[in-house]
Write a structure and sequence with these properties.
The chain is mainly α and 251 residues long. It is built from 11 helices and 5 strands; from the N terminus they run αααααααβααββααββ. The strands form 2 sheets. Strands 1-3-2 form a 3-stranded antiparallel sheet. A two-stranded antiparallel sheet has the order 4-5. β4 (236-238) and β5 (244-246) form a beta hairpin. α3 (35-43) crosses α6 (86-102) and α6 crosses α7. The longest helix has 31 residues, at 202-232.
């Protein structure tokens, strides 16, 4: 799969694909690119109805120029461990942020979550996040409060009594359980509405169907999360041919 930035020709192919009504995944397949690359490209350049290849290419060149000028102050100046390519890491962080945004997170919350996920420790302080993202501490605080409310991050104090914000494996489980539980309020409210609107009426039937559907999905989601929780704690082992496989040990 090719790496590097999209070329102008590839952007023109994206524009043609959008005009033909193709899904992002199909456009990406034709370009031999990850779907997330196409999603990010379209999202940040006008959306599916406003995307223009020439304008997108020019805007990307301008963003790259601005980043290079600001590099001494920003995250690009941070040293990368394990011999990582700083440019590739930064591009991947943007891709991950875009994926979080397309799943429903506001931009700043998605940026904070993406920044946390690409750290080896999985934790940063407010000042570290502010420095890496070049935003104010107030923006970080607001984003963390939002993410914590969704069980996507947690906080704890380190040995220096500083508050650290953390992403770890168990948060995926907690977030899935929360998502399932969040349906309970709608299910209860829908059933109340069905009684008020009159059983058997079109509006009541619509609410009853929604309640039954979400009740079924929530039960299945909780069961799947419980069964799949072991996957989060399986120790990853590497075979002699370099293929990573999950082990059975828990940390």
């Amino acid at each position: 799969m090719p790496g590097g930035r999209l070329t102008q020709a590839e952007r023109q192919q994206i524009a043609v694909g959008l005009a033909d009504g193709l899904a992002y995944a199909e456009i990406a397949r034709r370009l031999d690119r990850p779907t997330s690359t196409v999603t990010r490209e379209v999202t940040r350049n006008g959306g599916p109805t406003g995307y223009r290849a020439d304008l997108a290419h020019r805007a990307t060149q301008q963003r790259t120029h601005r980043r290079r000028q600001a590099a001494p102050r920003g995250a690009r100046a941070l040293p990368q461990p394990y011999g990582r390519d700083a440019e590739a890491v930064r591009d991947y962080q943007e891709t991950l942020t875009t994926v979080f945004m397309t799943s429903g997170l506001p931009k700043m919350m998605a940026r904070v979550l993406g920044c946390l996920y690409i750290t080896d420790t999985g934790s940063l302080t407010a000042s570290e996040l502010a420095q890496r993202l070049q935003v104010s501490p107030a923006s970080i605080s607001k984003a963390i409060t939002f993410l914590e409310g969704l069980d996507l991050v947690r906080r704890e104090r380190d040995e220096r009594r500083r508050e650290r914000y953390i992403v770890d494996d168990d948060l995926w489980y907690q977030s899935m359980i929360r998502s399932a539980r969040d349906n309970d309020q709608f299910i209860e409210t829908a059933r109340q509405g069905a009684g008020i609107l009159g059983r058997g009426t079109p509006a009541a039937t619509r609410l009853e169907n929604a309640a039954r559907f979400l009740d079924f999905v929530s039960e299945g989601l909780i069961r799947a999360a419980e069964q799949g929780r072991e996957v989060l704690y399986a120790r990853t082992e590497t075979t002699p041919d370099g293929i990573a496989t999950p082990g059975s040990d828990r940390p």
